[in-house]
Write a structure and sequence with these properties.
Its main location: membrane. The chain is α/β, with parallel strands linked by helices. The chain is built from 16 helices and 12 strands. Helix 3 crosses helix 4 and helix 9 packs antiparallel against helix 12. The model has no long low-confidence stretch (mean pLDDT 84).
Length: 467
């Protein structure tokens, strides 16, 4: 039933996408030629002439949406990821259309109108799909269009899966229970009960009342896995496996096929690729130069105030650990009174710290004190985006206390980062910061960097945890 529902939803989505493309195309013609926004040519083709091109545009764009995986279930596809895929598909679609027009030597179709179409279509598709998403999630919250599943194996993976399902009822998953051989029947986790042992699958599966089986066995139960998978596949029920070692493998496993033998790499770091490194470094240099020019008036005013209000050096430099565990000196505007190095190394700044100067409180709160790090970026010590660097004494401490902490040093530290735009700055959870840093390292793209930079501006530079 769920598969049939999903097929029907996909068909409806394709139809809605096609309608949006047609409406966006027609609206773009009106915007280009009738709105008065653009200067008109002495002559232009009619709407009817333009609409003739839809026979190729609609199927072409729908094919691009399929290629960009826009027809996967919306249960767990995030809004921002969906919008990003729509944007990518439209950029490629419009550029391909312009190339085709050039090849067939068709000068009468307005390129400006096609660019307008790309913008309008992105807006229309995002709006339409979010309306569909809202309707589906409301339906699922009311108990309809649910996926009924059973977990096989009680483990940390099972608990983490239940946590996410409980936190997102709009996904429409209903966990009927857990089967496990070592936990007493009746035991529960957040309202989900252990309802039997793994052998009970032989009774449950023939009833054909389940949409999915999710295997969440612990590492010590590997020998049962083959038997359970065979049992599930014979029943025809869709089966998933959530490994109980997800804290070891990356969020997006990097797999290799060695003559039919699947190999999962423990850590996939996209920036190990020299092309990716070159692109990121190019953006760092360009971005740092632009930022220095834009913020130079602010930096000049702050420099004068620091010099006038408190004796001592303008720039404070502090040793931090960077790429490949190598130390470097990170620059900041000095925000504290001059003190001996041994006193400065005692620990983090605390609330109402007497060492912080009046101007220091302001520039720390607004992150202005970080601006000199733009020169660290030009030097190659840092990047615009990446995990924040830490002092050597804290690196030594955290690497013993926090698993995978040192992985953050596989990339350049950043002026801003995924952890920072999610609120993990200053006096916040180190473990949460590391989780976000690792996610960034494993999922890096140039688009992800741009997204983090935009979020840094949108969410503001005010840091409530900066003292």
């Amino acid at each position: 039933m769920i598969k049939e529902n999903q097929k029907l939803l996909n068909q409806i989505q394709v139809v809605l996408d096609g309608i949006v493309i047609i409406l966006a195309y027609a609206l773009s013609w009106y915007i280009r030629f009738r709105s008065g926004i653009f200067e008109l040519d002495e002559w232009y083709l009619s709407l009817q002439e333009y609409m003739k091109w839809l026979w190729g545009i609609v199927p072409g764009f729908l094919m691009l949406y399929y290629i960009f995986k826009l027809y996967v279930p919306k249960r767990v596809l995030g809004r921002r990821l969906e919008a990003w895929r729509i944007l990518q598909a439209n950029i490629i679609g419009v550029m391909a259309l312009i190339v085709v027009l050039y090849v067939i030597k068709q000068p009468n179709i307005s390129r400006t109108m096609l660019f307008v179409f790309g913008v309008v279509d992105v807006f229309g598709e995002v709006l339409e799909r979010n309306l569909v998403r809202m309707i589906l999630r409301k339906i699922r919250k009311n108990g309809y269009n649910l996926k009924h599943i059973i977990l096989v194996g009680y483990s940390n993976a099972a608990e983490e899966y239940i946590d996410r399902i409980k936190a997102n009822p709009e996904w429409g998953y209903q966990i009927r229970g857990i089967l496990d051989d070592s936990i007493e029947i009746g035991s529960e986790y957040k309202g989900i009960n252990v309802i039997g042992c793994t052998d009970d699958l032989q009774i449950i599966l023939p009833e054909n009342k389940l949409d999915e089986i999710v295997i969440t066995l612990g590492l010590d139960e590997y020998n049962k896995l083959r038997k359970i998978v065979n049992m599930c596949e014979k029943s025809g029920v869709h089966t998933k496996f959530i490994p109980d070692y997800n804290n070891i493998i990356p969020t997006k496993p990097y797999t290799e096929d060695i003559q039919g033998l699947p190999v999962i790499n423990i850590r996939h770091v996209p920036l190990n690729n020299w092309i990716n490194r070159f692109m990121k470094r190019s953006m760092d240099i360009f971005g740092a130069l632009v930022a220095i020019i834009l913020f130079s008036p602010i930096m000049l005013v702050v420099s004068i105030i620091i010099k006038v209000t408190d004796p001592g050096p303008l720039i404070f430099k502090q040793e931090r650990i960077g790429l490949k565990n190598k130390p470097f000196y990170m620059y900041k505007f000095r925000s504290m009174v001059v003190q001996k190095e041994k006193d400065e190394k005692k620990g983090w700044t605390v609330k109402n710290d007497p060492r912080v100067t009046p101007i220091g409180k302001f520039i720390r709160k607004t992150s202005i004190d970080e601006l000199p790090q733009l020169f660290n970026i030009l030097k190659g010590d840092m990047s615009l985006v990446g995990p924040r660097p830490e002092r050597p004494l804290f690196v030594e401490k955290f690497k013993e206390e926090i698993p995978r902490y040192m992985i953050k040093h596989q990339v350049r530290p950043g002026l801003t980062g995924w952890a920072q735009v999610n609120g993990y700055r200053g006096d916040t959870s180190i473990r949460k910061r590391i989780e976000h840093d690792l996610y960034y390292i494993e999922n890096w793209t140039l688009g992800f960097d741009i997204k983090i930079i935009l979020l840094t501006f949108l969410k503001g530079f005010i840091n409530k945890n900066a003292y």
